[in-house]
Amino acid sequence: MTYDVIALVRQTPDPRAIVAGMIAAGEQLRVRETANGAVIQLCDDAGRPLVSLETPVLVQVPGEVRRLLGDAYDRVGVPVWWMEARAPSGRPEAEALARRFADEVARRLDGVVWPPKAAS
Fold first, then answer.
1. DSSP-based three-state secondary structure for 104
2. Which domain holds residue 88?
3. Which of 35, 46, 65, 120 has the smallest CB count inside 10 Å?
4. Of 19, 17, 14, 13, which Cα lies nearest the Cα of 31?
5. Which helix (H) or strand (E) holds 41?
């Protein structure tokens, strides 16, 4: 299982914001590309993945974010970029890294993060 954190952002994700999110997650982490570049993994010194960052997806269908995340996110509206960070379960530190990445990206690109901090 994984712990998923989603940043829903209004501005188009750019490399500068994504790298800032990666640095916020942990400057000491190693970076590797998988799935032919569709996924970036942040890894520990032993090369074990701690967070997988998926390619941002543009959501343009009204009600789609609400359908996937619930009524609380109905206010987000569309279009919105969906940026997902996945941390493996059983690695509590990985959950915090995924959250820091999403928080920083949302801060920089006018967004919100799911799940809310109280639920994480």
1. helix
2. 2-119
3. 46
4. 19
5. strand 39-43
- For residue 29, the domain's CATH number is 3.30.310
Question: What are the tokens at 35?
Answer: 């799935």
Note the pTM of the prediction, 2 decimals.
0.91
Domains of the chain: total = 1
| HSE-up of residue 45 (Cα within 13 Å, Cβ side) | 1
pLDDT digits (tens, 9 = 90+) for 43-99: 999 999 999 999 999 999 999 999 999 887 877 889 999 999 999 988 888 999 999
- Residue 72 burial (CB count, 10 A): 12
Give me the sign of the Cα torsion angle 68, 71, 73, 79: positive
